[in-house]
Design a protein that fits this description.
Layout: H1 3-29, H2 36-46, H3 58-64, H4 69-93, H5 96-103, H6 105-118, H7 120-127, H8 133-142, H9 147-179
């Protein structure tokens, strides 16, 4: 790993820690229940391609605090789409070389190959799993994939993912409360 890449990773880690500490950490430290503003901010930041945080883990935490599942789904999908719009725009307007230096040529080629082969279905599939969808939208912008199709499949995949997380929590949470 080059010195430049190490510095970039450290700066990104500091930004991610600052976002989480400045929102969720402050609420927990002050004894407050985590609010939807912190959920939205952390979630938005987690879908920017250069931060990559596993924000899906926040859903059960906020559900346990009493926030309704449908509200969490709407905020999750909305903030993810906003962040992915930035990712897509960066992919579209920043040079390919600069982005390949940042995410690496192997990852770029892997995402490009998937989009070329499967189109929007690749975007939907990658949105079902943590961490990879921001990079997928970045590459979709780079290869000039249809913005309308990219965001249709992205929103569909995100909605399926977060609906599944909320459903699983609703299914499993009562089992743990019965044990207490």
């Amino acid at each position: 790993m080059t010195k430049k890449r190490i510095v970039v990773v450290l700066v990104v880690a500091v930004i991610a820690i600052a976002v989480v500490s400045g929102t969720l950490g402050r609420e927990i430290y002050s004894g407050q229940s985590p609010g939807l503003t912190s959920y939205a901010l952390i979630h938005f930041a987690g879908y920017l391609f250069f931060l990559l945080m596993p924000v899906e883990a926040l859903v059960p935490i906020y559900q346990a605090e009493g926030h309704p599942g449908p509200t969490l789904i709407l905020i999750a999908v909305g903030t993810a789409i906003m962040a992915q719009a930035i990712d897509y725009g960066i992919g579209r307007f920043v040079s390919t070389r600069a982005i390949q230096d940042f995410i690496g040529p192997v990852r770029y080629e892997r995402f490009e190959t998937k989009i070329d082969k499967w189109g929007g279905w690749a975007i939907l599939f990658f949105n079902l799993f943590p961490l990879s969808s921001p990079n997928m939208l970045l590459v979709a912008g780079m290869i000039r994939f249809s913005v309308r199709r990219a965001f249709f499949f992205s929103a569909l995949g995100l909605t399926l993912k977060y609906s599944g997380i909320v459903y699983l929590y609703d299914l499993i949470a009562p089992l743990f409360s019965a044990v207490r």
